[in-house]
From TrEMBL:
<keyword id="KW-0732">Signal</keyword>
<dbReference type="InterPro" id="IPR006311">
    <property type="entry name" value="TAT_signal"/>
</dbReference>
<protein>
    <submittedName>
        <fullName>Hydrolase</fullName>
    </submittedName>
</protein>
<dbReference type="Pfam" id="PF03767">
    <property type="entry name" value="Acid_phosphat_B"/>
</dbReference>
<feature type="signal peptide">
    <location>
        <begin position="1"/>
        <end position="24"/>
    </location>
</feature>
<dbReference type="InterPro" id="IPR005519">
    <property type="entry name" value="Acid_phosphat_B-like"/>
</dbReference>
<keyword id="KW-0378">Hydrolase</keyword>
<dbReference type="InterPro" id="IPR036412">
    <property type="entry name" value="HAD-like_sf"/>
</dbReference>
<dbReference type="InterPro" id="IPR023214">
    <property type="entry name" value="HAD_sf"/>
</dbReference>
<dbReference type="GO" id="GO:0016787">
    <property type="term" value="F:hydrolase activity"/>
</dbReference>
């Protein structure tokens, strides 16, 4: 395990602990970021935040025209959906470990356009089920309308991540949705089909999980 991945795994534990405290604390305390947590975020990675945001924006600049065209061509009775990964896709996981974690703005802007035009948003993540509630709250807090959130149960933790995520997209289709786009930052987010288009955000050769 690389030092970066070890730092991130430790930081996710910090986020989970912070979430527990935040849920029990007054509402105005939930958005407070401690100095030590910020320092951990600053030292966690080698990827420049501004570069990451620029690169994410470039991908979303490709996605948005397609989505506008596809949404405008919605067939009668068609239920459209977009599937998103979470870590370093919809949320800025590796660039700040406050709770709630901030949204990845280029992705949030696209998501807001879609949800304002009747598209359902589904989130398929490798996060464990134990932090389902905190993840759901975080997404909603940031402005995402969550039509469904898929997290890994106990037995899912032993499955191949790509196969697990593919199965969740198939489940969404079985509920009558047409997945017009699948957006993530890892090959495991996007492989396996069950989406009309895929858009890959940068992970810089695995530096962002």
């Amino acid at each position: 395990m690389s030092s970066r991945h070890l730092a991130r795994r430790t930081a996710v534990t910090v986020v989970s602990a912070a979430a527990l405290v935040a849920m029990a604390a007054p509402a105005d305390a939930a958005t407070t970021t401690s100095t030590s947590t910020t320092a951990a975020a600053a030292s966690a990675g080698d990827v420049d935040y501004a570069t990451w945001q620029k690169d994410c924006q470039a991908v979303m600049n490709q996605a948005l025209p397609y989505l506008k065209q596809r949404i405008a061509a919605t067939k009668p009775g068609e239920k459209q959906a977009i599937v998103f990964d979470i870590d370093n896709t919809t949320l800025e996981t590796d660039f700040g470990f406050s709770y709630p974690q901030p949204a990845n703005k280029p992705v949030l802007d696209v998501a807001k356009y879609a949800q304002e035009h009747g598209v359902s948003l589904f989130f398929v993540t490798a996060r464990p089920g134990i932090i389902y509630t905190f993840t759901d709250y975080n997404l909603r807090y940031d402005g995402y309308k969550v039509s469904g959130l898929y997290v890994r149960g106990l037995f899912d933790l032993f499955k191949d991540v790509a196969a697990y995520k593919t199965a969740q997209r198939a489940d969404i289709e079985n509920k009558g949705y047409t997945i017009i786009a699948n957006i993530g930052n890892s090959a495991t987010d996007l492989s396996g089909g069950h989406a009309e288009k895929t858009y890959k955000l940068p992970d810089y050769n695995g530096q962002l999980s």
